[in-house]
Amino acid sequence: MTIISKKCFSRNLLVVGILSAGLILGGCASTPPASTLPEIGFSHLEKINIQAGSVEIVSEYKSSLNAPFVEHRFPTSPEKAAIKWAKSRLVAVGASPAKVRFIIIDASVREEPVEKQKTGIVGIFTTEPTADYFAKLEAKLVIEQAPGQTVGEIRVIAERNILIHEDVSLAGRERIWLELVETLVADFNNEMESQIRANLSQFIR
Asked: How far is Cα 111 from Cα 134, in angstroms, rounded to an integer?
């Protein structure tokens, strides 16, 4: 039995631009600072111990690397975050011959332009959103007693979107992208836990 749970969020976050100034001293070009973006991690969450002999993580999602899809530009893409989630949380325990398969189906981010609403003098002095980013993470957790013999399966879809204003710097944009992925994976984590408790509890230790 496949359980599909979809959570769609349409909350638009209006983000204030983060401006950073670079200084050039003595006429010498400075080296760009190293990224200070935090890592997305799951070490604070309990392990999900599943009665199985192994855990296999597979990504079936192939990024087109072309517009409107932009996840390859993100410091941490939804796909990388989902793989890290599975490695951190899913643990095979016991001597069961069963296998756990975590399969990523969709891990895309779509960029959609936003038309400027204000024109003329008002438009010149008004900061407006210029792009809306729609992120999606879809994956399923399958328990196989033997190859091709599925004894449990759940499927979760999480979606988030966020607006970015025209005055946001590249560094600010990357922070907003990171926030988008963080909230997306948090939603995914919560729904996955809920579905595991409801439909795969007999396999959890």
From this structure: 7
Q: Are 85 and 185 in contact (CB under 8 A)?
A: yes
- Rounded to a whole number, what is the distance in angstroms from the first to the last CA of the chain? 21
- CA dist., res. 127 & res. 16, Å (int): 9
Please identify which residue in the block is written with the tokens 């600072």: 33
pTM, full prediction = 0.78
Largest CA-CA distance found in the chain, in angstroms, rounded? 71
Pure H helices in the chain: 78-89, 120-124, 170-199
Question: Could you give the CA distance from residue 201 to residue 130 in angstroms, rounded to a whole number?
Answer: 45
In angstroms, the CA 148 to CA 194 distance is 25
How far apart are alpha carbons 48 and 68 in whole angstroms?
35
For residues 9 and 187, the answer to whether their CB atoms sit within 8 Å is yes
The burial class, CB within 10 Å (0-12 / 13-18 / 19+), for 31 is exposed
8 Å CB contact between 152 and 102: no
Distance of CA 57 to the CA centre of its chain: 16
> What whole-number distance in Å separates Cα of residue 122 and Cα of residue 66?
34
- 77-134 tens-digit pLDDT: 999 999 999 999 999 998 889 999 999 999 999 999 998 765 555 445 456 779 999 9
Collapsing DSSP states into helix, strand and coil, what is residue 190?
A: helix
* Sign for the pseudo-dihedral over CA of 186, 191, 195, 198: positive
